[in-house]
């Protein structure tokens, strides 16, 4: 099947079956498309839609996003995960206001110089919002093309990736580029799925090499397996008699960067000494809660939540904007990571139940 026929079939399928009512399709400005593409990285459409709608209602344009405080941006992102995406959005918005008059440049090379925008994201912005002939290669399109051409190897390997980019460039048409780009995303997400693909409904089925060879289930090759390391930490649930709990803003870089979390120490630390020396707090340590595992793409984190009653405090935790006493009875919606949000909910539940220990079920 040549590229012209490939494109024709994809567009015919899109006209009949493609998604045309997604929120970012209603007014596909470069800004709206950019935000949607960042949110959709490693996240499914159904999950993204309510986050996108809330985010756009609060930050309707680049200048509004740039003027916001980082903590507010993270608050509207909390729960989507991969928080570097939110930090990059905010950072890029400020760069755009400083250097590009508050507009996204409609040039692939310039876009790729901005934080969080790679080749495929730049291509999607320009194709969907500006109608430029730009190829994309997100995870769904990688899978579709790897099967169509029976490309061996894991798609993120440099050799395989180069081959897939060549195919993506070759098959991208010159007409109706926005529709074609959305169609390829939709085909990968709804038809050429990772498991149990619906080959009988695919417009490319008769020319798909993987189908002809009976290898749909094995292509593309999976990422080479490796056992994820396990890290441990102790989260200190430091509470006052009034029910307030101490939260600490995490550093900008690293996991949950910029979000609010509980102070952390190692499992071996003497908690009383640690709180006195690091925080200036006198505490009575209570029984630890059940260990909670939170998994990232590259490691597991085993969290030991440990409550402690604050009986006296100095001035260390009041220095600067690093710490805050958080009222669990009246949540303020600040940006917190998923396990922290669940722990805060458990603390609030414990207070409602007259201090009876609530064991977490995750």
TrEMBL record:
Domain of life: Bacteria
Annotated HhH-GPD domain residues: 39-190
CDD domains cross-referenced by the UniProt entry: ENDO3c (cd00056), NUDIX_DNA_Glycosylase_C-MutY (cd03431)
EC main group: hydrolase
Cofactor(s) it depends on: [4Fe-4S] cluster
Catalysis performed (reactions): Hydrolyzes free adenine bases from 7,8-dihydro-8-oxoguanine:adenine mismatched double-stranded DNA, leaving an apurinic site
Note describing how the cofactor binds: Binds 1 [4Fe-4S] cluster.
SMART domains reported in the protein's UniProt record: ENDO3c (SM00478), FES (SM00525)
Sorted UniProt keywords: 4Fe-4S, DNA damage, DNA repair, Glycosidase, Hydrolase, Iron, Iron-sulfur, Metal-binding
InterPro entries: A/G_AdeGlyc_MutY, DNA_glycosylase, Endonuclease-III-like_CS2, Endonuclease3_FeS-loop_motif, HhH-GPD_domain, HhH_base_excis_C, MIG/MutY, MutY_C
EC numbers, comma separated: 3.2.2.31
UniProt-listed NCBIfam families: mutY, PRK10880.1
Function: Adenine glycosylase active on G-A mispairs. MutY also corrects error-prone DNA synthesis past GO lesions which are due to the oxidatively damaged form of guanine: 7,8-dihydro-8-oxoguanine (8-oxo-dGTP).
UniProt similarity note: Belongs to the Nth/MutY family.
Name under which the protein is recorded: Adenine DNA glycosylase
Organism: Candidatus Competibacter phosphatis
Gene name of the record: mutY
């Amino acid at each position: 099947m040549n590229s012209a026929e490939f494109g024709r079939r994809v567009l015919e399928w899109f006209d009949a079956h493609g998604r045309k009512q997604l929120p970012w399709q209603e007014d596909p400005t470069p800004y709206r498309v950019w935000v949607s593409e960042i949110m959709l990285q490693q996240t499914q459409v159904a999950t993204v839609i309510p986050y996108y709608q809330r985010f756009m209602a609060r930050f309707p344009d680049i200048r509004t996003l740039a003027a916001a405080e980082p903590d507010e941006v993270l608050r509207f992102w909390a729960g989507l995960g991969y928080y570097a995406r939110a930090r990059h959005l905010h950072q890029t918005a400020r760069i755009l206001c400083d250097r590009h008059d508050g507009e996204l440049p409609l040039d692939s090379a310039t876009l790729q110089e901005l934080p969080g925008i790679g080749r495929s994201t730049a291509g999607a912005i320009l194709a969907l919002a500006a109608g430029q002939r730009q190829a994309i290669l997100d995870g769904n399109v990688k899978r579709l093309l790897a099967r169509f051409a029976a490309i061996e190897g894991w798609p993120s390997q440099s050799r395989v990736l180069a081959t897939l980019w060549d195919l993506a460039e070759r098959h991208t048409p010159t007409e109706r580029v926005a529709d074609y780009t959305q169609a390829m995303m939709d085909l990968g997400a709804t038809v050429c799925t990772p498991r149990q693909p619906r080959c009988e409904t695919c417009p490319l089925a008769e020319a798909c090499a993987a189908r002809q060879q009976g290898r749909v289930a094995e292509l593309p090759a999976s990422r080479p397996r490796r056992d994820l390391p396990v890290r441990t930490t102790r989260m200190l649930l430091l509470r006052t008699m009034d029910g307030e709990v101490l939260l600490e803003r995490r550093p900008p870089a690293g996991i949950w960067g910029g979000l609010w979390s509980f102070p952390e120490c190692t499992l071996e630390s003497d908690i009383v000494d640690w709180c006195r020396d690091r925080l200036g707090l006198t505490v009575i340590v209570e029984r630890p809660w059940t260990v909670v595992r939170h998994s990232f793409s590259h490691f597991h984190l085993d969290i030991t939540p440990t409550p402690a009653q604050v009986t006296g405090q100095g001035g260390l935790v009041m220095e600067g904007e690093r710490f805050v006493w958080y009222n669990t009875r009246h949540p303020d919606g600040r940006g917190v990571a998923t396990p922290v949000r669940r722990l805060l909910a458990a603390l609030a539940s414990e207070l409602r139940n007259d201090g009876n220990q609530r064991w977490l079920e995750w």
